[in-house]
Input
Amino acid sequence: MEWGMANRMAQLIQSDGRCLFLPIDHGYFQGPTRKLEEPRKTLEPLLPHADAIFITRGVLRSSVEPGNAKPIILRVSGGTSIIGKDLAYEGITTSIEEAIRLNVAAMGLSIFVGSDYEHESLLNLSKLVDEGEKYGIPVMAVTAVGKELEKRDARYLALCCRIAAELGARVVKTYWCEDFDKVVKGCPVPIVMAGGPQVDTELEVFEFVYDGIEKGAIGVNLGRNVWQNDFPVAMIKALRAIIHENTTPKQAQELYDSVKRGEQE
Output
């Protein structure tokens, strides 16, 4: 691996082999998402506890201070919206020159395996990998599933992740599922877990993150389950403990409750 690529990967994946990525890119298709209406306000208290942030160029420029940034994974796909016909009809929205100007650690885009636009999204990934490899910038592929998350199982996600790795993604973001070890075993590059819709309790999040780490994921890329929580700092601290300190879900819940009490006082 070339030095620049290795250096960027080392910024993202910490010395213990784990990572906590914080995505705040949801506005690129959802607009002002709940509790992300003011990205700077949402991000600032969470930034010290994240290993990297997944963000669009517009919000990066407007909401992150250059002197107080974490490694940046730049969202470079888009072109659709939540009210449009099909979220899968994405293109590459940001040039490699822009990524270089912004000094990013990685670029990220979505692939939509099994959709009407599977072909286009996989070619988007291939083209982005070609550009990224020229300049030592890794690509994170996101195995997006649109509005049909409940239909996706280990067999499907394993297919998506393997295809993304085959096309050159250096990291793959996918959803936790039952039999998650089958997804990880079939993917020869690191996997980080997405959160999907917000769940009912914090413990449910801690449990699936712990299970995923136990089964081989290197970390998470969780957004809504963090910043839509009523106590987001407590949430990200508890998740960080699972990822970087091998804390159990029960211990993470105790940490969450402790930090929460401190915020309430």
Summary: The chain has twelve helices and ten strands. The chain has one domain: 3-228. The longest strand covers residues 106-111.
